[in-house]
Amino acid sequence: MATPEHLVKFDERHETSQTYTVPPPWKGPEHCHVEFCIFSNPESGEGMSLVTTSRSAFAVAIAETPLSTGLEAGSFYEAEIPGKGSGLIANRTIRKGEIIMERPPALLIQAEPHVDLEPEVRDEVYQAAVDRLPEPARARFLRQVGSTIYDKVERNSFRIFVDGDRKHSAHLGVFPEVSKFNHDCRPNVHYRLNGLKHTTIAVRDIPAGDELTISYIYGRASHATRQSQLREWGFTCTCPQCTLNATETGASDNRLRQIEALETEIERIMGARGAAGLRPEMGGKLVELYRAERLDAYLAPAYTRAALIYAMFAEAERAREFAAEAVGALERETGPWAKDVQSIEMVG
């Protein structure tokens, strides 16, 4: 089920249309197989190609394409990282909450042809779609990790839902500049998707010389689970969190279990009439565990729970403290449109 921030919504004013024709400067349909065709626009962002249905292409074409924005030039640079290949390095201190980059996709592929087309046909369609990108965008796409275009899509794409949850809504979006971020299980950068816009934002202060990283997986998993999941990406993770000694790894896994147990207990109590058994320190303990685990990209739920719990016990100062932290974390993790921001601001 799509989350709202991943949706490119169809304009219902066009709902009665029987056919969907993309407006200029969009081109297509071209190179069609069954109902999936190539649509392209060299002027959309820095160039965009689609492999999708005419309806989904129309939804994308009439949506507002986000501009490529972010930090000023020179704030970070690309460099070779030992054991990783290329990566991004901070060239100055990047402060928590600064947006690193905002980008539209260069290639957007409907999920069904990616999975169902015969490999020979699929590869031909993908090559034609990439060929329709302007040369700079095409070069950035081809520099990504992966031996073939299919492999590059597999290893570098993010799921985007076009036109709500209708048939054929699931798409894979490839953002070549975002693919330069390497993985860390405790990343200093968080990413979010809103429509066609991919945003990366610092979740803690990043000193000059540090690598900028995102997480390819959900970071609250145990050490063994993370290692197993990341092997499916084709590498063994050697980030600082994954190379702790056995004692430290055990302590980390134990904190993660405590987080899960405490959140379950809080939800159970708050869902029951009267909230019997709830204690104000439960909110503070939850935040303490998140901070100890350096889960900086996932703090919004912990801060929100803590603010609400302290407010229930009329501990106004602590409630305001965690409400302010919750608002900042919600805006970093979800965006300024986060639905809980206004209600949490009222707590503060």
Automatic annotation (TrEMBL):
Superkingdom of the source species = Eukaryota
Q: Which residues form the SET domain?
A: 74-217
Q: InterPro entries of this UniProt entry?
A: SET_dom, SET_dom_sf, SET_domain_protein
SUPFAM superfamilies in UniProt: SET domain
Q: Which PANTHER family match?
A: SET DOMAIN-CONTAINING PROTEIN (PTHR47332:SF6), SET DOMAIN-CONTAINING PROTEIN 5 (PTHR47332)
Protein's recorded name: SET domain-containing protein
- Source organism per UniProt: Chaetomium globosum (strain ATCC 6205 / CBS 148.51 / DSM 1962 / NBRC 6347 / NRRL 1970) (Soil fungus)
